[in-house]
Structure formats: C-alpha cells, structure tokens
Amino acid sequence: METPTMSDSPGQQDKRTFGSAARFGVAVVGVALLVLALTLAWVSGCKSGSGPDSLANCETLQRQSFALGAPLILFAGGVVAFIRTYQVWRSGERWWGWQGVGWFLLVLMLIALTMTAPLALL
User: Fold this and answer.
1) Is the CB of residue 74 less than 8 Å from the CB of residue 40?
2) Distance between CA atoms of 73 and 98, rounded to whole angstroms?
3) pTM, whole model, 2 decimals?
4) Is residue 61 a contact partner of residue 110, using CB atoms and an 8 Å limit?
5) Of 122, 119, 40, 106, which is closest to residue 73 (Cα–Cα)?
6) pLDDT by residue (tens digit) across 75-120?
7) Which of 4, 88, 102, 106 is most buried, judged by most C-beta within 10 A?
8) What's in the keyword line of the UniProt record (predicted)?
9) Are 48 and 6 in contact (CB under 8 A)?
10) What is d(CA 121, CA 79) in angstroms, rounded to the nearest whole number?
C-alpha cells in the first residue's frame, strides 16, 4: 500500500484512493466471473435440457457451487469495500469511491443470486 508523501496534493491522494477502489472492484468482478464460468463448465456435464429441471441430474455440490459461488465472492468483496470505506474515512481521506464500489458489488451479488439460485437450488 502506498503512503502519501509530503509532495502529494490532496487531489492526487483522491485520485489514488479512487483508483485503488476501482481496481479492487474490477478484480472482484473478474474473480466472480471466473468462478461462475468454471462452475458453469462443471455443471454443463450433467445438465439435461433446459427449464426448471435442467440441473436435476447434477450433484448437490455442483448445484450449490453454481448457485452460490459467484454471489458469495461478490458479497465478500462488498463487505471488504465497506470495511475499507470506514478505514479511509477514519484517516480523513475521501471515502466515497470505496463506498460506491461496495454498493456496486452488493447489487451485482443480488443480480447474480437471482439469476443462479432459483435454477440451481429448487
């Protein structure tokens, strides 16, 4: 983690804070997409047709990892972003970038959960 130097202006510190928040958000979304792709590839071997019973032949572990893998990663990333928001706020820097990333990740978690959980857990 970079520490601000005496030559850094407040505007440079704000850009650095926002940049690190944006990089964190992109990394978490990338990991969640990778996990979703891997679990989708794993489940595709037992998938039968389409519709509500398409995953009936899959094992419980396969269905649960498909339904909860990516949403759990996005949720954990959102919680970490909110913890970082508090830390940045306590240090007197601009915290809004981290809070925005936290809300973005939690919204993505809800979208991913509503797309995968009904199909895999029912």
Assistant:
1) no
2) 17
3) 0.80
4) no
5) 106
6) 999 999 999 999 999 988 888 899 999 999 999 999 999 887 776 6
7) 102
8) Membrane, Transmembrane, Transmembrane helix
9) no
10) 24
